[in-house]
Amino acid sequence: MVFNSVDFLIFFPVVCLVYFIIPRRARNVWLLLASYYFYMSWNPKYALLILASTAVTYLSGIFIGWAGTKEARRARALKRLFLVLSFGVNLAILCVFKYLGFFLDTVAALLGAVGIDMKVPALDILLPVGISFYTFQALSYTADVYAGKLTPRRNFITYALYVSFFPQLVAGPIERSDHLLEQLERPRSFDYLRAREGLLRMAWGLFQKVVVADRAAVFVDAVFASPGAAPGSVAGTAMVFFFIQIYCDFGGYSNIAIGAAQVLGVELIENFRQPWLAVSIRDFWRRWHISLSTWFRDYVYIPLGGSRRGKVRKWLNTVTVFLLSGLWHGAQWHFVAWGLLHGVYQVAGDMTDGPRRRIRAALRIREDGALHRVCAVAVTFILTTAAFCVFRAGSVREAALMLRSLFTDFGPKALLSGQILEFGLDKWDLAVFACSVAALMAVDLLNERRPVWPLLERQVLPVRWVCYLALIFAVLIFGVYGPGYDAASFIYFAF
Length: 495
Fold this sequence. Notes:
By secondary structure, the chain is mainly alpha-helical. The chain is built from 20 helices and no strands. It has helices at 6-21, 27-40, 47-67, 72-113, 131-146, 156-164, 177-184, 192-224, 232-263, 281-287, 290-301, 311-329, 333-351, 353-362, 370-392, 396-408, 413-416, 427-449, 452-457, 461-478. The longest helix is centred in the first third of the chain and has 42 residues, at 72-113. The two termini are 16 Å apart.
């Protein structure tokens, strides 16, 4: 069941209606049942993996709390043991289902390079939807209990709901226990204004997904299907389209998740903050997939030493974190290369910060001036778009072919002659796409100054309803729907 499906259109109102009718003490039970039903609509047996992750981290939290009552030296050893067991079991499950095939193929390739033939067994393992998301969310609870930031929870129902809460179960945002869990423990009642804003946010997320992302996907899929075959200008356009596609696909999911939770009285953390306005790669990661970048910062980068042990160690920690981030996204080398590229970007930016400051001072360019900001945004956009080419391509080799075409076969002829229309989108689609992206940029620019949704809710009734109806009709009329309304999945479901 995906957010842009007819099934969810029926499922969500039913869940909300029952949720606000039944007694408050039964609401978390109902949400837990709804969440497991939501997940089991993909593959019922993989709900056992969520249950296993939930049970292990729940018991680990209790045992870590129990260990804290012992003598100090023994307490440290016991707490560390239960933390290692929690992480070990969960990461072992994640590795078996997501990385085992990748590991065996890599070992076989390395052995083959030295003349040793290794037969890799055929593994009939289907990647469970959202396993990386709920695993990291569960592990953050264990880590926070171990660090003393959170007391162990005894209510298994509430904790199980924290791990499996359906709006953000399969693609985030990756919530923290001190934020989501504590909300789920408090009573929640229906709030009309909050629900109205949540529904508006869900509609905007659907607009991002079915009008923008799914339309861009038609063109992107056609160009990336034959890497290096399209003219450089078309390949470059496809790279820009993919940046827009993945932003609207994942950002759309996050908006629907945040809006759905808001209707139910739960506030989820923001996962995106206008990433195309980033002025540096570091700033980009403060705006893109915020829940994952902060997770790696708090549970990997800082424990490794962060920036406290000199520049070389800081750069090594940065590259390590981004390598792991790339691997988190997928068990393929092009994802690892994408993560490494972002790590190198950050290290290079740090190393050249001093010289760039001196150049700006010599040229009398103000760092807070409009010219510098426009140039910084443009450079960051180009760098991230090139990196996303590596992300989207089926391999590092295919990414290299796409990027090479920018330098060997680039020119405006393919765009001006109409050759761009040979890749799935006609003039009408391109016009709709251009208008939709303009609307997206306008909303993002408003959000950069102040949150746009509360601002809209304060407008007079006619203005609000014009915006509501325009958004609804845009989704219904301009959305890209497959035969028989075959709802397109979200990109991050694969991670």
